[in-house]
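TL;DR need structure tokens for one chain.
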Amino acid sequence: MTHRPNVSVPQRLLPLQRTFAVALCALLLSACAVGPDYKKPDMPTPAHFKQAEGWTQANPSDAIARGAWWEIYGDAQLNGLVEKLNTSNQTVAQYEAQYRQAAALVRSARGAFFPTLDLTTSKNRSSQGTGSSSSSLSSSSSGIRDTYNAQLGVSWEADIWGKLRRGLEADKASAQASLADLASMQLSLQSQLVQNYLQLRVIDEQKRLLEATVDTYERSLKLTQNQYRAGVSGRDAVAQAQTQLKSTQADLIDLAWQRAQFESAIAVLMGQAPADFSLAPTTSVPALPQIPVQLPSQLLERRPDIAAAERSVMAANANIGVAKAAYYPDLTLSMNGGYSSSTFSNWISLPNRFWSVGPQLAMTLFDGGQRAAEVDRTEAFYDQTVAQYRQTVLDGFKEVEDYMAQLRVYEQEAGVRKEALDAARDSLRLTSNQYKAGLIGYLDVVNVQTTALSNERSVLTLLQSRLIASVQLIAALGGGWNAETGLTHEPEISRR
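>> reply
TL;DR here they are.
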């Protein structure tokens, strides 16, 4: 008779206690993480803009809502077009899908902190030869057996060296960078649509100007023809009047394809086919927003492309820790249990049970320098992202400086061109009266009319340039101003 040794309950639980002790140590050690902690790269920031006073430094605020910045142009139809872009543009949809992918990776990285629970059931049919060639078919058949298995397993990787935490940190930063890329692309597309719309409206104004000019030239041609019939003017005056009229009509026709191009571009930006979209002409051009005297630095710091570049640096820094964690062993705690039987009838029964529990420590001893190379690669990539971030910031300051200088120069030019336009209109009025009185020839009138029309079109072209530069400045500042800055609009310039 076999005598079973007397084992006390605490002795039976000793292996489990050791396992839990290992798990507790792993939890305590998991408070540390290899690799450098993130620190925002140093970036020399100017105390002020050369083109504007009042620039002050502030903390990054790219998460602040930018709002519907395009509403400062006071055009309800433009507001509707941009809202349509926000919901229907296919490029925005692509970037939004990319962000959802990055967000899913973050959820996956968080899931790695929890234990994995697996359930496996199987049926195996196996046979083993007897080793004798004279075995009968019946004896061979008797070697076939069925095995039924049901197993439940739990495993958990202890994040001792912070590999999982660094990976989560990298994925979160990448998701934030992806979200900033989405905002950057959306801002860029909004800027394109607003610029296209404003240029289209200036073309409408040019069209009205040329139509009015054609009417004037037609009256001048009729007057010149009457004077020719009366013997007051020569045939050359009629030819000059016809040339002037036809040239202006040709310019008017040329505007049609330019307007069609802008209309098609707006349609595509809104996710529509150009054939299904059209914009009716309006009677005015949106007002030019006045640039605030003081610009808070938060505006540039809200630029989504700068935010994306900085988040990329954060992700690259975390990946250095992931690469360095490969030098250290991985600790996995696992527990398995289930039932195994050769018959299905008593498969799930106490005598057929089995279980196992214990830690596993795995470490790479030699890899031919692969881990060292990976650390070098991640560190070099980090340096690359830092350089890209700093260049993005420099480019941002440059763009703001350029657009502010452009608007300042345009404003000065607008005043001079307005004076030139007033003088040209006055000269045209006086010259027309002199021609009607028969004091001068028609060639003098043609020259003055050409000068006046050129000044009219130059003023409209300058207005178009100022509107475009204002949109570009708003985009360069991250999209709009705060309400506290007190946006105002310039009054519309007087037109014929």
